[in-house]
């Protein structure tokens, strides 16, 4: 019991995201994938259907199988707490929601005949945001340039030459959202007096 008292819920947004995603995965198994189609994947649907709005966010919580879940959660559990500590829980939650909605809307608009699910767009958003760490005002970190070349460039190449079940579009949108949100958060941090940080 003493050991349990020493465990710290150190990154509430990241840990809650991982926990809800695990519940979504279990529900997917229990319902034979029906919950994934109803709540945890995004595809073109009427905006008169209230579930469409849930899917715009819920698609980043759903995963096709345990391996898909673990691949994303390992990266999120490594990178996410650092971002949450640096920018705060509210800012990280907003970044996740913005990335989910933008990638969901683009999926609905451009790929009407398919559905996407999974947190890989969130992973790419976090990777790009973390590459902005230590950015000085008026300068572009070399780490950001390299991440954009290797990760985003690689996804563009994969999207052009490979046909698989991975949505390169979600990865690219996640990376672009991470760059935009990271720049905005760094700019805001640099304007605050040191005492307020």
Structure description:
This protein has 197 residues and is mostly helical. It contains 9 helices and no strands. It has helices at residues 2-6, 12-30, 34-38, 50-58, 66-87, 89-110, 120-131, 142-161, 168-191. Helix 2 packs antiparallel against helix 5. The radius of gyration is 17 Å and the shape is globular. The mean pLDDT is 86.
Q: How large is the count of helical segments?
A: 9
Shape: globular
Percent range for helical residues?
Answer: over 70%
Describe the main β-sheet briefly: none
Strand content: under 5%
Count of DSSP E strands? 0
In terms of structural class, how would the helical and strand content be classed? mainly alpha
Q: Distance between the terminal alpha carbons, to the nearest Å?
A: 35 Å
Query: Which regions are unreliable across 5 or more consecutive residues at pLDDT < 50?
Result: none
Q: What pattern of helices and strands is seen along the backbone?
A: HHHHHHHHH
State mean pLDDT (0 to 100 scale). Answer: 86
Taking Cα atoms only, what radius of gyration do you get, to the nearest Å?
A: 17 Å
């Amino acid at each position: 019991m003493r050991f349990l008292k020493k465990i710290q819920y150190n990154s509430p947004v990241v840990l809650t995201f991982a926990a809800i995603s695990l519940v979504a995965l279990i529900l997917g198994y229990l319902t034979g994938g029906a919950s994934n189609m109803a709540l945890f994947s995004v595809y073109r649907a009427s905006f008169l259907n209230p579930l469409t709005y849930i899917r715009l966010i819920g698609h980043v919580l759903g995963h096709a199988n345990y391996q898909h879940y673990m691949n994303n959660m390992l990266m999120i559990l490594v990178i996410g707490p650092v971002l949450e500590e640096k920018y705060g829980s509210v800012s990280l939650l907003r970044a996740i929601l913005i990335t989910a909605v933008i990638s969901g809307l683009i999926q609905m608009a451009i790929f009407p005949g398919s559905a996407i699910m999974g947190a890989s767009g969130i992973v790419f958003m976090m990777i790009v945001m973390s590459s902005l760490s230590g950015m000085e005002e008026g300068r572009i970190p070399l780490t950001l340039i390299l991440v954009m070349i290797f990760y985003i460039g690689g996804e563009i190449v994969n999207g052009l030459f490979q046909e698989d079940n991975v949505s390169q579009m979600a990865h690219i949108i996640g990376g672009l959202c991470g760059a935009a949100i990271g720049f905005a958060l760094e700019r805001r941090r640099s304007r605050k007096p040191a005492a307020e940080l």
